[in-house]
Amino acid sequence: MTPLLSARGVTVRYGSLAALDGVDLRVDHGQRHALIGPNGAGKTTLLDVLGGATRADGGRVHLAGRDVTRLGPAARARRGIGRIHQRPATWSSLTATENVVVAALPHAVRPGRWRPGAKRAAAERTAGVMLERLGLRDVGGVPAGRLAHGQRRQLEIAMALAGRPRLLLLDEPAAGLSAVEVGGLVEFLRNLPRAVAVLLVEHRLDLVYALCDRVTVLRDGRTVATGTPAEIRASGPVRQAWAEGV
Ligand code: ATP
């Protein structure tokens, strides 16, 4: 079966440093796939390449069989790639609701009979549903800049989901969250419909093992292992990477 995402030979160079050096990655439909590895392994760079924010120096990226290598972030978002950043990327002066409406607008389905404002109304409905699902209904009117870190993280997830992604790229979503918030995040991701696949960059192995059915290990810009969590736990390269501090 055609994978949802296929990256082959992805290379990114910064001067003489190869941040990624011929990386292959396959994410299947509905899969929960973790990307782990030591600091500087290239995890964020790979998410940037997959999301279209960074142009690779070599290699190809396919989404559901279509070559998206040359597309930018907006075009990839329209084709179903949603992205959560290490630091939540929200518009501080807009309210939580407005942030999600803006994110939903390009994807809002236009109803059969056109009327003025129909698209905006659809985006507002989507925003209401997403804020409710992420536990943000009560802060819908609060500017994003005044939300607590954990709430902004949830808001960014709501914004990404408003774009109806087929693949969600999550960069360390648990970073900076309280234990209670991490519990809520795990619960939320567990309940996410399988129509959405997840590629998760995460240092916390307990979360990786709780959420993911596939794990890829990067080190020095290369893939050193890929397999089920049980296989990865038992594999030599991973133990070595861990010994050096992930
Ligand atoms: P961490 O777990 O610390 O977030 P990572 O696995 O996500 O690390 P990257 O942030 O992708 O690693 O970085 C991979 C390598 O590329 C590192 O050596 C980093 O210093 C380098 N790098 C990343 N972005 C740039 C840039 N814009 N300019 C120069 N070097 C960069």
UniProtKB/TrEMBL annotation:
Pfam families given in the database record: ABC_tran
Domain of life: Bacteria
SMART domains: AAA
Cellular-component GO terms for this entry: plasma membrane
Domain ABC transporter, chain residue ranges per copy: 5-245
Gene3D superfamilies: P-loop containing nucleotide triphosphate hydrolases (3.40.50.300)
UniProt-listed InterPro entries: AAA+_ATPase, ABC_AA/LPS_Transport, ABC_transporter-like_ATP-bd, P-loop_NTPase
Any GO molecular function: ATP hydrolysis activity
Keywords: ATP-binding, Nucleotide-binding, Transport
Protein name listed in UniProt: Amino acid/amide ABC transporter ATP-binding protein 1, HAAT family
Organism: Micromonospora citrea
Lineage of source species: Bacteria, Bacillati, Actinomycetota, Actinomycetes, Micromonosporales
